[in-house]
Amino acid sequence: MGPGPITADPRVLRAMSAQLVGQYDPWMTGTMNEVMGLYREVFITENQQTMLVDGTSRAGIEAALVSLLAPGDRVLVPIFGRFGHLLAEICRRAGADVHTIETEWGQVFTEDAIEAALSDVQPKVLAVVHGDTSTTVAQPLEGLGELCERHGALLYVDATATLGGNEFRTDEWRIDVATAGLQKCLGGPSGSAPVTFSERAVAVIEARKSVEEGIRDEGDPVAAEPIRSNYLDMGQIFDYWSERRLNHHTEATTMLFGARECARILLEEGLAESWSRHQLHGRAMLAGASALGLPPFGALAYKMTNVVGVEIPDGVNGDAVRGAMLEDFGIEIGTSFGPLHGRIWRIGTMGYNARTDAVLTTLAALEAVLRRAGHPCSPGAGVDAAYEVYGAAA
Question: What is the CATH code for 271-393?
């Protein structure tokens, strides 16, 4: 019940137990095409280049950024938590000219603040984390795509922690590139990164690929340097997932089966229904934790639906409580990073764990452990507060 990875849906685990299939078997290539279609629905996009990157969500992030950014390209990264720092680091390693703006952890940026930075920096790419699990708040995205178009920038969004459980509309919000992972709201294991690229973003990557292949006409404009990574070269990955079936790598068959089942489960439920389910169980967990005397952390107006941040009470050993939760009840909750390490707990309600029984069991266990740690709690207060949320929603 931490910020991810979470308990995988049993249907996903069953799908991943299927036998392997050769990557050029017609059934295998048909499955790849099916997965592309499924994730267009998940991302709510018409983007042709919607697929999987074989690797954890960080592989998807790096594939997107190293393929978009050539050495010297300017990128703007608004940092409001640990994973904004990660985006900045990856961009620096790609040789980009990285500019950042920062706000207090637990807060988000206003649209005006981002527009001012865009005007000042004039970047090629604005790279934004949607929901930063280190702080449990989500940056509003509506309007950022229009700002980027106005300033000639591409909009990249890291949706690892939010896709499937928080509202996300790729085309409507004019997002050029989005990457995600299975291990949060999608209810699968880490190891596969769904990604989607707009035509504008594809054109940038294809121009760099043509330099690599030496096929640009003499009169063509000078293109950026070729992509520095081989495995994470989206130009080659596009070709691998196209009818050309470029022999770029051997598809991770088991992860393909898992990613397909994650999308099937989500779309069977319905995107809006899944967003509502995550919101309901997130509210119940927040109400229950608050009733146990755990103050919420961060700007609640921008709280992610699928993870709650609560402050660790004075006099309570946060790591000892987490250890007792795991050892005595088999329930994992998380702390955080950097300035929030040991200051807050992060309790997830996402994917297969966004369920009433999981929320109530976690709150009951947390109360028991807190009482043994000397923290005063009214017996049953957490569970009762969650029940009130569920009752009001019934």
Answer: 3.90.1150.10
